[in-house]
From TrEMBL:
Keyword Flavoprotein: yes
Top-rank EC class of the record's enzyme: oxidoreductase
Cofactor(s) listed in the protein's UniProt record: FAD
Domain FAD/NAD(P)-binding: 3-283
Gene3D superfamilies, per the entry: 3.50.50.100
Protein name per UniProt: NAD(P)/FAD-dependent oxidoreductase
GO MF: oxidoreductase activity
Length: 355
């Protein structure tokens, strides 16, 4: 029996499971899923969990069940590509015939002293729970600093404003405008929303140091009760330690068929893969679809696809609390109620089809 091992039940890993099960897995193949949690987590909603506007069970989806799907819950501590082995919790060895690495990303602290030690994160469900406890136990008029005003930082700041209208929220961003990758018209709309709702935006920020309850911007100290870091991501440490070619962001360079060069049995999906788009749940799922095609050809001993059509991503949607939102759909900027409704609908559809 061949063993397909999937590291990480995120958006890419989940899509692969749902495409292979229940009826498209060859009789001589079993799947071993390895994840820290016994459920799939909706990472795109961690900001709301941290802000306290949704409960934990709203962002959990059960993994599929199948006689030849075996789950192991623990932490991946190493991967040996030459021996074709994965080690869990530093002791249990899991051999594989084919491997899919979908371990996701971690915060990138840009060598800022104290950032790792003295800030909270929303990169994992455990970290988001910790942030929730800290943020929602704050006294009235406490100050929260959010470092980084990309999509995660903006959604966290807006959701936290709705959850805790009494808090002083400071949003630090390196650029002249928040959401630098979006059109200026859209960025300006979001900035106006923050101004109207009493969230202070500090543009041109350069965080030089973090100490307990103090964030230094251009070496100027700002006293805070909680600091949340949303200023960049990097691949999981297991992936960073792999002795394979990486791109400038530390993501694994892959062949057209999404496997590691010289390791035709090892695929990388999602945030750890070097792809022509920024990491996203959409991208991980689109890549997973292609990996399934490659696996099925391989198992049937057929020639692998020589190429794939370009990924077709529908766009990006972000929330400004529960009533307003923003987004880019087919390169068209959307602002106000409609993108927020669209985002809620996308989330409902995902849970309906995957849960």
């Amino acid at each position: 029996m061949k063993n397909l091992v999937i590291l990480g039940g995120g958006y890419g890993g989940m899509r692969i499971l749902l495409r292979l099960l229940p009826n498209h897995l060859p009789e001589d193949v079993q799947i071993t899923l390895i994840d820290k949690n016994p459920y799939h987590c909706l990472k795109t909603e961690y900001y709301a969990l941290a802000a306290g506007t949704i409960s934990d069970h709203h962002i959990r989806v059960s993994f599929p069940e199948h006689p030849r799907l075996h789950s192991k819950f623990g932490e991946v501590t190493s991967v040996n590509l030459d021996k074709k082995e994965v080690v869990i919790n530093e002791e249990e060895i899991v051999p594989y015939d084919d491997l899919i690495i979908g371990l996701g990303c971690e915060d990138k602290y840009h060598n800022v002293p104290g950032a790792n030690e003295y800030t909270y994160s929303i990169q994992s469900i455990d970290q988001s729970r910790d942030a929730y406890q800290k943020l929602n136990n704050l006294n009235a008029d406490a100050t929260v600093a959010i470092v980084g005003a990309g999509l995660s930082g903006v959604e966290l700041a807006s959701e936290l404003r709705e959850s805790r209208k009494d808090l002083n929220i400071k949003l630090f961003d390196r650029g002249k405008h928040i959401l630098a990758s979006f059109p200026e018209r859209l960025s300006s709309y979001v900035e106006r929303w923050f101004t109207e709702h009493g969230v202070e935006i500090i543009n041109g920020a350069n965080i030089t140091k973090v100490e307990p309850n103090v964030v230094y911007n251009h070496d100027q100290p700002f006293d805070c009760d909680v600091i949340v870091w949303t200023a960049g991501i990097q691949p999981n440490k297991i992936v960073r330690d792999l002795p394979v070619e990486k791109d400038a962001q530390g993501r694994v360079v892959l062949t057209t068929q999404h496997y590691i060069p010289n390791y035709e049995d090892t695929f990388v999906v999602g945030d750890c893969a070097s792809l022509p788009h920024a990491p996203s749940a959409q991208l991980a799922e689109a890549q997973a679809e292609q990996i399934v095609q490659v696996l099925q050809k391989k198992w049937n001993e057929e020639p692998l696809p020589e190429s794939f059509p370009p990924f077709k991503l529908k766009g990006v949607l972000g929330s400004l609390g529960k009533k307003q939102g923003f987004g880019l759909v087919n390169d068209r900027p959307l602002m106000g109620r409609v993108p927020r409704l669209l985002k809620s609908g996308v989330l409902w559809m995902y849970k309906y089809h995957n849960g």
